[in-house]
Structure formats: structure tokens, C-alpha cells
Design a protein that fits this description.
alpha/beta, 9 strands
Length: about 220
């Protein structure tokens, strides 16, 4: 399970339906469901209460929101070690440097933020909420794919003349409409690969379902 530090701007996007709210909301659903272990810096919580007090003009409402967040976000202490690490950081903004130092000392996988440029000089990778969601989904798919092997539709590529558009390549090998999906993958975990064809031409779609460059053939069928 991924362990991440949530930047304050992602929390605000989630609470106030700002900018990247959809991805932020989906990420918080995953956190509540236990699919991601999420942390927030104690210093960020202090700043958050300031914003919430101004927004609600009610300490009771602020307390309710913060208590709910504390139900599924773990708080990272900002102690002397974190501050000393932040002072040596190459990140120019000290608040961001504190967040990165805290994440680094806890060996977290990512910092989740809307402003990726703020953490470019940090050692902990920074990703947007949408990027983290895709990373987690891909890991789940890879795990499922290892557990369920695709069937070989044919030991040769499908050479087809294609027009620009959206297509879904069959990953499971069970489709009757090869090389494209017909829904036969249901229950296997081997979901189809969405492909955008931008230029008309001949494309060689993998038929063996073992290509390392899905959805197109890489010659792997010759080894099967």
C-alpha cells in the first residue's frame, strides 16, 4: 500500500471544490477505504484551521471538519529533526521544505500536491492526485494480470487498416471480436486497453496477448 503526504492545496481542493476537486475527492475516497495510507503535516493542519475559521466564521464548524480529517489522515510531527532537515533543503519555500523533509524522514512514497513545481528539488517524488490514482490502479491491474493469465487469441499480430478514433484492445484473449474487446473479460481482471489512434494507417495489434508493448505486437508470439 502506498504511503503519501497530502499537501494542503489538495485538502482545500477537496473541501472547497476547487480546481482539481474531482481527483482530490476520488483520492480521499480511496484513503477512507484504506487503499492508501495518508499523512498530513501538523504545520499544514494549523494553516488549514486558519483558512477554515475565515471561511466558516465558526470554530465549531472548523473543529468538525478537522476532526473528520483526523479520522483518516495521520498527522506527521514537525520536530527539531524535521526543521533542521528543512533548513538544509534545496526547496526554496520553507513550508514546502518542511513537508518534504517530514515525508523523507518517514520514507513516504509520494507527496501529493497540485503544485508539482514546488517540490522539483526535493528527494520525495511529487505527484498530482490524478497521477497517484493512475499509479495505484495500474499496480492493481498488474497484480491481477499476474494472477489471471490471458488466453492466446492467435500467435500472430492482427494487421488492420485503422482510422483515427478510440479503440479498446482485448487484453484477456477471450473476445470474439479480436483484437478488440467485446466484454468477455468480465470477472478476469484483465481489462481492455484504451487506445487513441491519431493517424490513419496499418497497425499491428498483438494477438498473443503477451506483448510487452500493449496493445501492439513486439514479436513475443514467436517465443510462445
Amino acid at each position: 500500500m502506498k504511503k503519501v503526504l497530502i499537501d494542503l492545496n489538495v485538502v482545500l481542493d477537496f473541501l472547497n471544490r476547487q480546481k482539481q476537486h474531482r481527483d482530490a475527492a476520488r483520492l480521499f475516497q480511496m484513503i477512507e477505504a484504506g487503499e492508501v495510507t495518508a499523512f498530513i503535516g501538523a504545520h499544514e493542519l494549523v494553516v488549514l484551521t486558519f483558512f477554515l475559521d475565515r471561511q466558516f466564521a465558526s470554530r465549531v464548524k472548523t473543529r468538525e471538519v478537522v476532526e473528520k480529517l483526523l479520522g483518516f489522515l495521520q498527522v506527521v510531527e514537525v520536530d527539531e529533526n524535521v526543521l533542521r532537515e528543512a533548513l538544509q533543503s534545496n526547496i526554496p519555500d520553507f513550508e514546502d521544505a518542511v513537508s518534504e523533509a517530514a515525508a523523507r524522514l518517514l520514507a513516504l512514497d509520494y507527496i501529493v500536491t497540485r503544485d508539482l513545481k514546488d517540490y522539483k528539488k526535493g528527494a520525495v517524488p511529487a505527484v498530482s492526485p490524478g497521477e497517484l490514482i493512475r499509479i495505484i490502479k495500474n499496480e492493481v491491474l498488474e497484480k491481477m494480470n499476474k494472477e489471471v493469465k490471458p488466453q492466446i487469441a492467435q500467435k500472430a499480430p492482427y494487421a488492420l487498416e485503422m482510422e483515427p478514433g478510440q479503440y479498446w484492445w482485448c487484453r484477456c484473449g477471450r473476445s470474439k471480436k479480436q483484437p478488440f474487446c467485446d466484454g468477455s473479460h468480465k470477472g478476469t481482471g484483465l481489462t481492455p486497453v484504451e487506445v487513441t489512434i491519431e493517424e490513419a494507417g496499418t497497425y499491428y495489434w498483438c494477438g498473443c496477448k503477451h506483448t510487452a508493448t500493449p496493445p501492439f505486437c513486439d514479436g513475443t508470439h514467436k517465443k510462445l
